[in-house]
Amino acid sequence: MRLLLLSLLLALLAGCASGPSINTQYQAQGQNSRVQYIILHYTSTDLAHSLELLTRGEVSSHYLIAENPATVYRLVDEDRRAWHAGVSQWQGRTWLNGTSIGIELVNQGFYDGPKGRYWQPFAPAQIEALIVLLKDIMQRHELAPGSILAHSDVAPQRKVDPGPLFPWQRLAEEGLIPWPEAGAVARQQALFEAQLPDVAWFQQQLAEHGYEVPNHGQLDQATRNVIAAFQMKYRQANYDGEPDSETAALLWVLNNSASR
């Protein structure tokens, strides 16, 4: 009898230790992934230092992609929050660590030399590995094209990564991000050359696109930084932060595209 009671007690304790009994036979239709965005970064250093920074410090990311060979490292499970975006905002959502997957690319970024700023190109194999990873993440989390962002998109006042040499158009060719149609841009640019929209228009259009941007109608440094972030993605030959007709056309076409 004592042995039976002891067995029952141990079984009861084991049940308590394993947590509550939960029935999972029903699933709600009204749900989706907590992941809304994928944010791309460069590490500004080599692989060894990147791994040290991202695994032993306070900064982290879900994935790190090396250059050669283009190894993909998973450093944080996707169901957990990585500390990669910092103070950030997109489409009115803030502090995007909780709703995004961070991907770091091993790349030195830039340095300023006597002939100006030099940016390191990305290794082709590294980009191909990234594309495979992006397609997998987007399929599993049911993300729409346009969910992939630059760190400079979500924090344009303090970040420039992944920089003007990142091949955004290559991602567009794979259907991962929207891209402005060249003919539509040319037609719209001709109209804007006749009359350039004012700064308030640029601020409104940038905000509609997703950026956090001032709305006071003045061309201050904060507004220039946001314009430069947009240009660094869609017009990489010139990202001076000036509100010109080509930038206006690119912005207008993207905001009015049916595939947006």
UniProtKB/TrEMBL annotation:
<keyword id="KW-0732">Signal</keyword>
<dbReference type="GO" id="GO:0071555">
    <property type="term" value="P:cell wall organization"/>
</dbReference>
<dbReference type="InterPro" id="IPR002477">
    <property type="entry name" value="Peptidoglycan-bd-like"/>
</dbReference>
<dbReference type="GO" id="GO:0009253">
    <property type="term" value="P:peptidoglycan catabolic process"/>
</dbReference>
<dbReference type="InterPro" id="IPR036505">
    <property type="entry name" value="Amidase/PGRP_sf"/>
</dbReference>
<dbReference type="GO" id="GO:0009254">
    <property type="term" value="P:peptidoglycan turnover"/>
</dbReference>
<dbReference type="InterPro" id="IPR002502">
    <property type="entry name" value="Amidase_domain"/>
</dbReference>
<keyword id="KW-0961">Cell wall biogenesis/degradation</keyword>
<dbReference type="Pfam" id="PF01471">
    <property type="entry name" value="PG_binding_1"/>
</dbReference>
<keyword id="KW-0378">Hydrolase</keyword>
<dbReference type="InterPro" id="IPR036365">
    <property type="entry name" value="PGBD-like_sf"/>
</dbReference>
<dbReference type="InterPro" id="IPR036366">
    <property type="entry name" value="PGBDSf"/>
</dbReference>
<feature type="domain" description="N-acetylmuramoyl-L-alanine amidase">
    <location>
        <begin position="23"/>
        <end position="163"/>
    </location>
</feature>
<dbReference type="GO" id="GO:0008745">
    <property type="term" value="F:N-acetylmuramoyl-L-alanine amidase activity"/>
</dbReference>
<dbReference type="Pfam" id="PF01510">
    <property type="entry name" value="Amidase_2"/>
</dbReference>
<comment type="similarity">
    <text>Belongs to the N-acetylmuramoyl-L-alanine amidase 2 family.</text>
</comment>
<feature type="signal peptide">
    <location>
        <begin position="1"/>
        <end position="19"/>
    </location>
</feature>
<protein>
    <recommendedName>
        <fullName>N-acetylmuramoyl-L-alanine amidase</fullName>
        <ecNumber>3.5.1.28</ecNumber>
    </recommendedName>
</protein>
<dbReference type="InterPro" id="IPR051206">
    <property type="entry name" value="NAMLAA_amidase_2"/>
</dbReference>
<dbReference type="GO" id="GO:0019867">
    <property type="term" value="C:outer membrane"/>
</dbReference>
